[in-house]
Structure formats: structure tokens, C-alpha cells
Design a protein that fits this description.
NAD(P)-binding domain-containing protein, NAD(P)-bd_dom_sf, two-stranded parallel ribbon, Rossmann fold, globular, seven-stranded parallel sheet
């Protein structure tokens, strides 16, 4: 039986993952702080507020694992600082909150090309986020690096719509991947044996999901 904390439950991967968690009989409680209310569910505790950082500091229910599914773009955030706050600060704080509440496994959505040495803000921020989570000393840390995500966003991203046909044709880890497949792989990782740090690139997410079914 598992109690989980999920951050980013209204997003593309987070929304798919929330549905899987609600249907999983091994999951007994789900804590999902959000800015907008989620549909009610017997397992779900959904603190709502505009300040996600404040919501995190107010959590006190023990959890066994934490899923960090937060993510935005520089365009959506409006500035470099706002982007860094969502994709680095809030993710790192979410993981720390999970540790405070007793979680032993952190699973986080990063991105293809994440690197602290990248010259691109997006990839560099993802790399810095990964490094910060590693430094938290998790007994088990799973980092997933999807390529372009496929799925229905509440607010479509223009550049994704333009680039999607190209990413559908690219080979290997560059090929676009369905958000539901990323969520399914995270779920499978959460309830499989292991320890230490595991990094799954986009092509591995697709392969891992296919070989487990």
C-alpha cells in the first residue's frame, strides 16, 4: 500500500499519472496540491491555492513517494526568472517536501537534452534541477527525459503544434512520445524494485513501457 504526493497533476503527464494512481489498488492516498480544483475522488486530498510553494509548506500527511510533474516554457512563464521558478525552484521544493513527509522514492519529469552545461535555458534549467535532486540524497531517484510530449493540453502550445509532425518522424530518443506512455512508465517504476539513481531517456521510456506489457 502506498501514499503518494503528486505535483503538477493538472499538466499533461501529471493528469495522465493522476488517473493511473486513482485506479491503482496499491495506492491508498493521493496528495495533490494544485492552483485549480481537481475532480473529487475518494483517495484524493487536493489543497488548492494560488501559491504552490505555500501549499507545499503546509502539507503534513506522510507519503511514501513523490511524483514531480511540473513544467512550463519560457514563453508561457513570461520571463527567464518565472520559468526558473517553476521548472527548478518549485520542483526542488516539491522533492524536499516529499523527503520531509517521509518519501523514499522521488520520480521527476525532466526533458531530453537536460544538462547543466547546456547553452539553452530550458535544457540547462532541467539539468540543474536534476543535479539538485541528486544532491538531496534520495534512497531512490528516477528521472525521466521525454522528447516532445503528445497529448491534449488544456492550452495548446503553438510551437509544439508546429514542430509535432517533425518530431513524429525523428528516430530514437528524439521521436515524440505520448504523455500517457511517460505516465505509465513512471507508475511502473514506482512499484518496481530498485534503488539509487535511474535516468530514462525518451526511447527507453517507450521501450520500457512496451516490454512490461
Amino acid at each position: 500500500m502506498a501514499r503518494v504526493l503528486i505535483i503538477g497533476a493538472t499538466g499533461l503527464v501529471g493528469g495522465e499519472l493522476l488517473r493511473l494512481l486513482q485506479a491503482n489498488r496499491q495506492v491508498t492516498a493521493i496528495v495533490a496540491p494544485t492552483r485549480k480544483p481537481l475532480p473529487p475522488h475518494d483517495k484524493l486530498h487536493n489543497p488548492v491555492g494560488d501559491d504552490l510553494f505555500q501549499l507545499l509548506t503546509g502539507l503534513d500527511q506522510p507519503v511514501d513517494m513523490v511524483f514531480c510533474c511540473l513544467g512550463t516554457t519560457r514563453r508561457e512563464a513570461g520571463s527567464d526568472g518565472n520559468f526558473h521558478y517553476v521548472d527548478y525552484t518549485l520542483v526542488v521544493e516539491s522533492a524536499l517536501t516529499g523527503r520531509r513527509l517521509g518519501a523514499q522514492h522521488c520520480l521527476a519529469v525532466s526533458a531530453l537534452g537536460a544538462s547543466t552545461r547546456s547553452t539553452f535555458l530550458y535544457n540547462r534549467t532541467k539539468g540543474e534541477m536534476e543535479q539538485a535532486l541528486r544532491e538531496q540524497g534520495w534512497p531512490r531517484l528516477t528521472l525521466v527525459r521525454p522528447s516532445m510530449l503528445l497529448g491534449q493540453r488544456p492550452t495548446p502550445r503553438l510551437m509544439e503544434r508546429i514542430a509535432q509532425p517533425l518530431f513524429n518522424l525523428l528516430p530514437g530518443k528524439w521521436k515524440a512520445i505520448a504523455a500517457k506512455d511517460v505516465a505509465q512508465t513512471m507508475m511502473e517504476q514506482a512499484f518496481s524494485a530498485g534503488n539509487g539513481v535511474k535516468v530514462l531517456e525518451s526511447n527507453q521510456l517507450r521501450c520500457f513501457h512496451s516490454v512490461t506489457h
